[in-house]
Each structure stands twice: as structure tokens, then as C-alpha cells.
Design brief:
Blueprint (H helix, E strand, L loop, with lengths): L2 H27 L9 E10 L2 E11 L7 E3 L6 E4 L4 E4 L10 E4 L5 E2 L5 E2 L5 E6 L18 E2 L6 E2 L6 E9 L12 E8 L5 E10 L5 E8 L4 E9 L9 E7 L3 E2 L4 E6 L6 E6 L9 E4 L4 E7 L5 E8 L4 E6 L4 E6 L2 E3 L7 E3 L3 E3 L8 E3 L8 E4 L1 E3 L5 H36 L1
Parallel strand pairs: 12-20, 12-21
Antiparallel strand pairs: 1-2, 3-31, 4-30, 5-6, 5-9, 6-28, 7-8, 9-10, 9-25, 11-23, 12-22, 13-14, 14-15, 15-16, 16-17, 18-19, 19-20, 23-24, 24-25, 26-29, 27-28
Length: about 425
């Protein structure tokens, strides 16, 4: 090897080790970056005229090795537990597939519009569901069916009341008095056909006849739906249960103790069945001595609800919890995967794009096809081992110094050669 070749070899060694120091410094700087994947240098020989005359450095990322999980308690902090990546986009509902990336950085928070966005500014993508919580047919081989995950623009449609059951106790000693006392009023709330809350007032008037009450139903607008006499058993095995009903304009079925109201609150009236308790049963309004037990009502209707919070399941389904008690799926968050993740190309913001070497992207349901589950309230840390990086830094520093010594020695030899010539 000539002196010039030795110089070139030393310079290539300096450049290669400089690149390695750059990677090590980046790893150490990002040791606390969420979802960061360490980079490292690989050296290959460089040939000149069929002779080994130096070294080249290539940089790779250790994408396939996972970092540790850190609990945060925030429901929108997400982590893939196992293999796979979240799909994120540069813009909300971005139409360009080239603006979709893969990342393990799941530090998502809602922006001013409720779109989930991570610290790098990328928006989380998922498959939206319909009102029944189903995604329908979606493609796992592209990003065309994805939408930006939003957790603010949702309401749960209400369902009108159809069946209401009343339960309570009327005090037996209030009946049979020469001068009956004031009626007992119960307020029953129901859900109208638009998902709003309305109320009906049930008045229980004690009668001068023992064990007899007159129940009437009216609303706040003054509509009176009629009344009925309710007689209670005063002895035997059925004492305290309804004995019979006698309607006085109230649409009541005496065989079942069910009031079938028609409420004119729309183009199509709302039908509501109110069960007061069948004769001989104790599952409705009873009459025993003692204090009144205010009536409670079990309603099958639900009011229109607003989104209160979002919850993520292990299978990647994002559920919305509404203030009317409903809970339904809003999005299915796919977990993306490629055949060789270490060959993906890195982009700004701790994200990656697929290349020919990595293979194409496939979108999978979490916990299927070899991909991991989705954890909520946790973040994945960097896969950087500080001790290993410092060890590599010392080794690289020594290698750099050795290559510098080659250049110094070669320079001295060249000077000596020139002096001989002179």
C-alpha cells in the first residue's frame, strides 16, 4: 500500500467513525424520547483497484427492538405492546397517501378540534364506525379508508321511552278517613321522541273508602290523561298488593295494571306503557302501613348524550362514554406492520415510511396476524441503553484516534520521502 493509499484509508476511517459518533450522540440525546428507535453505523470495506483501501459507513435504525413502557394514566396516551405501528398523517383526513407514516410515538392529545395529535404534530388515523359501532368492509392494504381520530364531535342518539315500570308504597293508614288528606305526588321523567327529557305527574289521592286510592296522570302543560280507582288487598297472602283497577278515563288495562298513554308530542304520537303493578303482585305500587315510599320509575328510554371521555381496548377499539350512560365504539385503530421494519426510511418526527426493502404496509386488527395489542395510559420509551452507548462511544473514540495516528504517520513518511528527494 502506498503512502497516499494509507492517507486515504485513514481519512475514510475518520469519516466512518465520525458518522458513528453522530449516531451515538443522537441516541443519547433521544434516550427519553417517546418511541425513539436507536440508530447505529455498520462498516463495510471500500475497494480501490481490486484492493481493500478504506471503509464506508452506513446508518441503520433498530426499529424492530421495542422500548420499555411507562405508565402515564392519560387515556389518550397509547402504546403498541408487541410488534406493529400506529398510522399517522401529516394533515387531518389527508387525501395524499404519501403523507401517511408509521410511528411508535403514541403521546396523543386532542387539539382544539378534538383530533388526536402526537408531540410531532402527526394525527392518529383509524377506521371510523357507524352508529352501531361497526366499521364495515375496509381495506388493510392502503390508507384510503382511514380517517383522523376525533373524540369531540360525537353525540349518542337518544331512544324514546316505551315502557316504564313504577314501584313504591302508599301508606294504608291514609285511606278510610272521614276527611282524606292531600294527595301524594310522584314525578315521572320520560324521554321524548327527540331524545329530550319530559315529565308526568302521578297523583295518588287517598279515599274515604279503606284501601282505595285514586291515581291520576297529568303533565306540566295541564294535559290530564284521566284517573282510575285502585283497590288494594287488606288481608290474606296478597295483602298489600293491588286487588283491582277501575278506570275513570285513564287508558288502563285492569288485568295487567298497565296504563297505555298516547302523548301528542310529534307528527306521530308517542306511545308509553306505564306499569303500576298487576293485581295480586308486589312488583309495582303496593299499600302497606307506615311511611310512604316515593315511587321510583324504571325507564327503557335514553336521552341524547354528549361524549364525556374515550376509552381504548386492547384490541384497538376506541370507545366513547357518553353522559347518558351509553358506551359505543367510535374508531378501530389498526396496527400496521411491514415485513422488514429495519429497512424503513426515517422521517422527521420519529416516524417511518415503507420502502421496497421493508415491504409494503398492511393494516391489521390489534392482537391478530402477529401484531401486538394497544395499551392505553402508557407510552413506549426509547430502545436506547445508555450504558451500551457510552461503551460504544469509548470504542469509537479509540478507533478515531487510531485512524488519526495513521494519517499522522503517513504524513511523516511523506515528509521524509520528500526530504530524501531533495
Amino acid at each position: 500500500m502506498s503512502i497516499t493509499s494509507a492517507l486515504q484509508t485513514g481519512v475514510s476511517g475518520l469519516q466512518a467513525n465520525s458518522s458513528k459518533v453522530e449516531n451515538i450522540s443522537s441516541n443519547i440525546a433521544n434516550a427519553n424520547t417517546v418511541g425513539y428507535r436507536r440508530t447505529f453505523s455498520e462498516f463495510v470495506t471500500q475497494n480501490t483497484n481490486s484492493k481493500q483501501a478504506g471503509v464506508l459507513s452506513t446508518t441503520r435504525a433498530d426499529v424492530s427492538s421495542n422500548g420499555g413502557l411507562v405508565s402515564t394514566g392519560r387515556s389518550t396516551d397509547l402504546a403498541v405492546q408487541g410488534d406493529g405501528f400506529f398510522v399517522v398523517s401529516r394533515n387531518v383526513n389527508d387525501p395524499a397517501e404519501s403523507n401517511y407514516f408509521l410511528t411508535r410515538a403514541g403521546s396523543f392529545t386532542p387539539d382544539q378540534n378534538g383530533n388526536l395529535r402526537n408531540a410531532a404534530g402527526y394525527f392518529l388515523s383509524g377506521f371510523p364506525t357507524d352508529a352501531a359501532g361497526a366499521t364495515g368492509p375496509v381495506s388493510g392494504n392502503g390508507f384510503g379508508d382511514l380517517s383522523t381520530v376525533n373524540i369531540s364531535s360525537y353525540q349518542a342518539a337518544g331512544s324514546p321511552s316505551t315502557v316504564i315500570a313504577a314501584a313504591g308504597n302508599m301508606p294504608a293508614q291514609e285511606t278510610g278517613l272521614a276527611t282524606p288528606g292531600a294527595p301524594f305526588i310522584s314525578t315521572m321523567r320520560y324521554v321524548n321522541q327527540l331524545g329530550g327529557s319530559e315529565k308526568l305527574n302521578l297523583s295518588w289521592q287517598p279515599s274515604a273508602t279503606p284501601n282505595q286510592w285514586t291515581v291520576s296522570i297529568a303533565d306540566d302543560a295541564g294535559t290530564n290523561y284521566g284517573s282510575a280507582a285502585v283497590n288494594y288487598n287488606d288481608s290474606g297472602a296478597n295483602a298489600g298488593s293491588p286487588a283491582s283497577y277501575v278506570s275513570n278515563g285513564l287508558p288502563l288495562d285492569p288485568a295487567t295494571g298497565t296504563v297505555n298513554l298516547t302523548i301528542n308530542n310529534g307528527a306521530t304520537p308517542q306511545q308509553i306503557s306505564i306499569s303500576l303493578g298487576a293485581p295480586g303482585s308486589f312488583d309495582g305500587m303496593t299499600q302497606f302501613s307506615g311511611d310512604q315510599t316515593p315511587a321510583t320509575f324504571t325507564d327503557d328510554g335514553t336521552e341524547t348524550g354528549s361524549l364525556v371521555r374515550a376509552e381504548m381496548s386492547d384490541t384497538g377499539v376506541l370507545y366513547g362514554v357518553f353522559d347518558n350512560g351509553q358506551r359505543r365504539a367510535l374508531f378501530e385503530i389498526p396496527v400496521a406492520n411491514v415485513t422488514n421494519p429495519n429497512q424503513m426510511q426515517s422521517v422527521n418526527g420519529n416516524a417511518y415510511v415503507a420502502t421496497l426493502e421493508s415491504g409494503s404496509v398492511t393494516l391489521n386488527k390489534a392482537m391478530s396476524n402477529g401484531v401486538g395489542s394497544v395499551g392505553s395510559g402508557v407510552l413506549e420509551g426509547a430502545n436506547v441503553d445508555i450504558a451500551q452507548e457510552l461503551t460504544d462511544l469509548i470504542q469509537t473514540q479509540r478507533a478515531y484516534s487510531s485512524n488519526a495516528k495513521i494519517i499522522t504517520t503517513s504524513d511523516e513518511m511523506l515528509d521524509e520521502t520528500l526530504r530524501i528527494k531533495r
